[in-house]
Each structure stands twice: as structure tokens, then as C-alpha cells.
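Lab notebook, bench 4. Still working through the backlog of constructs that have no structural model yet. Next entry is a single chain of 200 residues. Request: give me the C-alpha cells for it.
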Amino acid sequence: ISILGTTGIVRPFSTASWRASVMQAVRVAAAQGEQTIVLCTGGRTEKGAITLLPTLPEVCFVEVGDFTGAALSVARESGMKRVVFVGMIGKLTKLASGLLMTHYTRSQVDTGLLADITAAHGGPPEMVAEIRTAPTARRAYELWADGALLRACGDDVCARVADTLHRFSAAAGRGLSTKAAMVDFTGQQVVAATEPDWVG
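Model written out:
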């Protein structure tokens, strides 16, 4: 695979190697006695997560990419207790709909779910309809922000993400305590979360 990051430079990665590095990073944190692992989708979200949780040591923050399931399994097997997932709306929507494989070629964003969440929080019918047919989750984010629904709908997405992560970890044994936060597209501001005091 090739990863096109924010630098615009294509960097080739072996999928197996990346998965192994994620699992190793979680094991290293556990070996150092850490009980919390913070899974981030990339560099920008990792920076946001470090700002959000400044008391945690750097080893707790892992750029998980699309290997959320592998990271969760290792965290549980290693005796960790808490998982925090920090991401942008696209990856979070996939997790909220119950998908742990979030790579763009392996799963699609369920904009129908986002439309249902919009309706549940009082979004007008025209907004619900546009989100249901939107090509990306980003459009839902933009409409929520314009319509003063970002916090309510974003919190709902985060709660569903935390539920997905907990259910996955519990299905294989001991369930982990799970939390989630949504950051904006700069990665610097938390706009929604399972913890109200994280948003600001």
C-alpha cells in the first residue's frame, strides 16, 4: 500500500509490517505498566490526542491506521484497561456502524447512519436527505456545523464508536473501558466526545 499524507509525499508501507508495528507499540506501552492506550488514525489526530490527554506518556499514543481490531486485541491480551479512540468523522462513522476495518477499499462510510443520527437530533428533513445521499462523511460534518448540530450528532457518533470498541473487546473476553473523541480536520480541536469536558 502507499500512504499519501499531509506532506503530499507518497510513502510505501507493507500492510503486514504496519499491523505488526501497531501491535508492538501497544505491547510496549503495556510492558511499561500503562493501563490506557490511545488509538489515533494518523499524525494530525495523534497531535490532537496528545493535547487532549497531556498527562499520559508518549508511549500511550499509537497511530493505528486501519488496524483498530488488532490494537484492541493486543490491549486486552496485555492486561490494559482503557482504550481511547481519537479520529475524524470518516473513520469514526465506520466504527460507529460496527466496522473495525476502516480502509477505504474495504468498507464504505454509512451516510444513512449519519442521516438517521441527524434526524434523531432534530435536523430538518432537507438536511437529513442531503446527508443520506452525500458522497462522504465530511459533508455531514459541514452541515452539522452550519446547523448547530455538530456537538449533539458528534457526541452520538462517539458514543457508538465507544460501544463498538467495547463490544469487540468483550466478545473475545474481558471488555475494555472505551472512550472516543472526534477532532476537526486540523486535528487540533475536539468537537465531540464521550466525555463532555473534552470538548472545547
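Notes after review: The chain has a mean pLDDT of 89. The chain is about 50% helix and 15% strand. Flag for follow-up if needed.
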